[in-house]
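Open question from group meeting: does this chain pack into something compact, or does most of it stay loose? Before anyone orders reagents, we agreed to write out a predicted structure and look at it together. Recording both the input and the output here so the notebook holds the full record.
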Amino acid sequence: ESLVSGMIAGSAVAFKANKQDLNSPEVLCYASKSEGMFVPESLIFRSDSNGEDLEGYAGAGLYESITMDTTETRKVDYMDDQLVGMAIEQALGSAQDIEGVVGPDGVITIVQTRPQV
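Structure tokens returned:
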């Protein structure tokens, strides 16, 4: 949520990779969000985002999210993140718009994916 909500200034990491050589990605923009938003297992409330699911509509991130419990902001380190995009693309058969979370233990969990518009 720290990325799409706009509550923490900065940008996400951006890279490109040759699908035949995933061990050599080229970083286009380094992540400048040095903080992550963490909340205990809880609920996150969002305004109606049904528009995100319409074909040809890229509305991701246009809606506000509010956690039921208090959110804690902590420093994050992206140095050891894995490249998961290719594995998801191969599993689903096309490029994907992926949303996920990195837990306090560093485990990456994908929470939503849809074909890239």
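Observations to bring back to the group:
The chain is about 5% helix and 35% strand.
The longest strand covers residues 21-29.
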